[in-house]
Structure formats: C-alpha cells, structure tokens
Amino acid sequence: MNTTTEQQPPRSDRLGSDRLERPAFGDAPAAAPPKAQRRASRSMYQKHAKVYPKAVHGTFRRIKWAALAVLLAIYYVLPWVRWDRGPNAPDQAVLLDLANRRFYLFFVELWPQQIYYLTGALILAALGLFLATSLAGRVWCGYACPQTVWTDLYVWVERLVEGDRGERIRLDQGGWTARKVGRKVLKNLIWLLIALATGGAWIFYFTDAPTLLGEMLRFEMSSTALGFIGLFTATTYLLAGFAREQVCTYMCPWPRFQSAMIDEDSLIVTYQDWRGEGRSLLRKSQSWEERRAEGLGDCIDCFNCVQVCPAGIDIRDGLQMQCIGCGLCIDACDEIMTKVGRPTGLITFDTQTNQVAVATGGQPVPFRLLRPRTILYTLMMLVIAGGIGVGLLLKPGLDISVLRDRAPLFVALSDGSVRNAYTFKISNMTRDPRAYTLAVSGVTGASLSVAGDGQDEQADNQRLTADPDMVATYRIFVTAPRTGLQGASQPLTFRLTSADGEVATYDSVFMGPAN
C-alpha cells in the first residue's frame, strides 16, 4: 500500500538559501552532485559562513549596551586617574612601569620579587570566572569579555553604515558599485579609528599618560611605543572586525571548559522545547487552538532567535559550545511572542532542573544559589582574597638578595684565612632614605668588609644605606679563619636591620678548602 507524506517546506539558513533535504525512503535517488561539490564534501574543514547579526531591542540588549558603555569608559579613562604617592613617585593610579620594574595599582606598589601577589590575583580571577559560570553560564563571555565588547561596538558601526541584517546581506552579495565601495571604506575607516584609540589607550597603562600624549602630539614617540600601538591596533581591527565569533569558538579555550563548570542548577539560555515543539509557521487564518489540535507548539519558526545571535547558532538545538549566553535570542523571541499574543519566555534563562519539573507537570523549582560547587568556589575566593589582603597589609618595606661569586669559589689570604665575595642588593621599598646594619652568622670568627658603589673603600662598621624606592648594590667580603671552618661548604646567614627595627635575612653558603 502506497502512502504519501506531506513534505514541510525546507527551512532557510541564516543567509536565506535553502538547505539540502535528504530524500525520503523509497524515493528515486537524487542526481549526483557536481564534481566541485563532491570535492568540497570530502574536505576536512567547513567553509566559514559569515554571521550577520540582526538588530534587536529588549532587556538583555539594554544590559549589554550598559555593560559596553561602562567597560569602555573604564578602559579609556583609567590611565588618566591620578593617585598621590608622595614626592618623586608616579601619580598615575594604574601603571605597569616595566622600565623601572614596578606595578602600581592605586595604593598598592609591587616589586618584581612580589610577583606572587599577581599570581594570587590571577587565581582569584579564575575562581571568579568558575563561580560566575556555575551560576549563570557564560555570562562573562556574553557581557564583559573584551572580545564581546569590541565586537558589539564594531557590529553597531557596521549596522550604522551598511544597514541592518537584510541590507548587509544584499550589499555583500551584490556587485561592486560606487555606493558599496563608499560604505565599505567608511566602515573600515571607523573601525581603524576605534582600533587606533584602543591600541593607544593600552599603551597609556605602561607609561605616564600625559607625557606619552604630549610625545604623540609632538611626533616624538619611541619606535617601541609605535610598534605596540600598531600591534594592538591591528589585533583589535582583525579580531573584532573579521574574526568575531571565530575567536570565541576556535581561539578561546573557555567554551571547552564550560561543560565542566555548569550543572543542572546553572542559569543558562534555554529553549522550552516542551512548549515550543513542534515548530511551524503561523498562518493568518490559523488559531492557537487549531495549532494545538495539529500537535504544534508556540514556536512559529520565524528564525528571529537565529538572526540576532552574534554566534549564528540556533538555540533551539540545545546548549552549544558556541553560545556565549548573551540572551539576545530571548529579546527576539519575547518580541515575537508578544506580537502573536503568546506568553513570553519561550526562550529564557532557566535551570535544567526547573525545565524538567515544569515539562513533567510538576511545581517550578526555585533557583539554588547555594550549592556545593558555588560554596567551594566562594570559600576558596575568600581564603585567597584574605591572604592577599593580609599580605598587602603586612608587606615589608625591605628586601635583600645575595649572590655569591662562583669564580673563584674562595680566596686563601696570606694569613691563612679564607674569603668569599658576594653581591649584596638592598631593596628599599619605602619613600624615605634608610640606613641599615649588616651582620653575618653561621661561620665561627667571620668578619665583614664592604665596598659600595664601585669604590674600594672598606667599611668595618657594616653600615649601609639605600635611597627611597631604589635598589642599592654593594660588594660584600666575608672573611673567616680556616680553623673556624667545618667543611668545604657551610651555611651562612646575612641579617640586615633597618634603623626602625625592620629585619631581613638571607641564607647563603660559605665555601672553603675541602680539608
């Protein structure tokens, strides 16, 4: 018995072309595809399809605009914020002074040997990202990631110059005319100006901003500054203008990690398939009761959720690696549901636990903020933040480092004693000149002699000085009688005491003859 099946019209993809449908069982075999198409089907790589995000209005779009404005304002304004650190100190609030090897962050000043604070800050940021993802999915990617912020800005410029989605598609698919060339040139010029402002602002974080701006205006910039501005300008222009969602999908590792961070109680962008399926276009004469009788749901297959997505995915296929959790598909769907007289929320931020409960006719499950993983992440962040805070409060103003000469290992003097030479560095991390007293212990009968600043003067009182916020370098000689040595190598401790009682110690060794 022959049966016939009513065929649905093929869906349109994001560019408007029809998808290829597999023939039904029993149909005549389709004609062989052209040779070029067969060769393309054997390719290991899928050709990139450009995404044309459509303009959308709604709650999440407004949140994204607000986040974009705040983050860009912070980025461009922060280098100009001043912070008084006293005389002869930089007054830029945030400054990564690589030339002088200092990192200034408002009241915090870090030296190279205090890199562990930066390590702690990076661990704290990573845990914060873990916590945010476990609570609300890729909310960082959708609202605060620099790639997202600048891509949003570039798409807005593109829409302003070339028009909305449909007009941009027609413009790209059409031939090259004077109008098309003019729009493309104008768009890329604005993109380059934004990229130049981005690269220029980034350089301001590494040197005094007013000084560098004056050098820019006088065309006196160094080749290094010009090189970094060009590098950041090019990367901003390419990544935000052309790579866009490919950065999030292929370059960023976070999409691969998100599945380990979220669970059934995480708030993620969710399509309520129990309410929306099956999908079908809404006919003008069709009532919702008739749709229900035909087994159709609230989704009218308008593809608005796909057209507004900056990643070009269909959220109705479920959570995907490319989804950045921006929620623009929610705004697009809510707008359509309002127009057709259906409740909003067909696409919404929800948990899997609640979706299962509602789909099976149960009571809605409230969002669980406190869960084992969120509690663990929070406790770890509190411990690390507390450790960093205590460390900054107790941060010493003095640090020393000692490097023993390796050639020669030791010198035997004419009176039979043995001498070792050391390079001794004092880091005065205060804004005042300091005087110190140096002593050694661990070797019986050891005595000190000091030669500083490249001079040959000997000082047997072991008094050293260091200028404010500077590293003072001295040449230290430790001499010990051979009878006081207990082997070829034995521990030696340097002890430096400041005038106000602060103490720094360093453990080294003293080398002598094997016998």
Summarize the topology.
Elements: H1 35-41, H2 59-77, E1 94-97, E2 102-105, E3 108-110, H3 115-136, H4 139-143, H5 146-162, H6 165-173, H7 178-204, H8 209-217, H9 223-243, H10 245-251, H11 254-261, E4 268-271, H12 273-276, H13 288-293, H14 304-307, H15 328-340, E5 347-350, H16 352-359, H17 372-393, E6 398-404, E7 411-412, E8 418-428, E9 434-441, E10 447-452, E11 463-466, E12 470-480, E13 489-498, E14 503-511
Antiparallel strand pairs: 1-2, 2-3, 4-5, 6-8, 7-8, 8-12, 9-11, 9-13, 10-12, 13-14
Helix pairs in contact: 2-5, 3-17, 5-7, 5-9, 7-9
Regions with little confidence, pLDDT below 50 for 5+ residues: 1-30, 453-460
Instruction: Count up the domains.
Output: 3
Based on CA inertia axes, which overall geometry fits? elongated
Q: Biggest sheet, in brief?
A: 5 strands, antiparallel
Indicate the structural class. Answer: alpha+beta
Distance between the termini: 107 Å
Number of DSSP strand runs: 14
Percentage of residues in DSSP E strands? 15-25%
Number of helices: 17
Fraction of helical residues:
40-55%
GO cellular component, one term: plasma membrane
Biased composition (Polar residues): 1-10
InterPro entries: 4Fe4S_Fe-S-bd, 4Fe4S_Fe_S_CS, Cyt_c_oxidase_cbb3_FixG, Electron_Trans/Redox, FixG_C, Helical_ferredxn, Ig-like_fold
Domain 4Fe-4S ferredoxin-type: 311-343
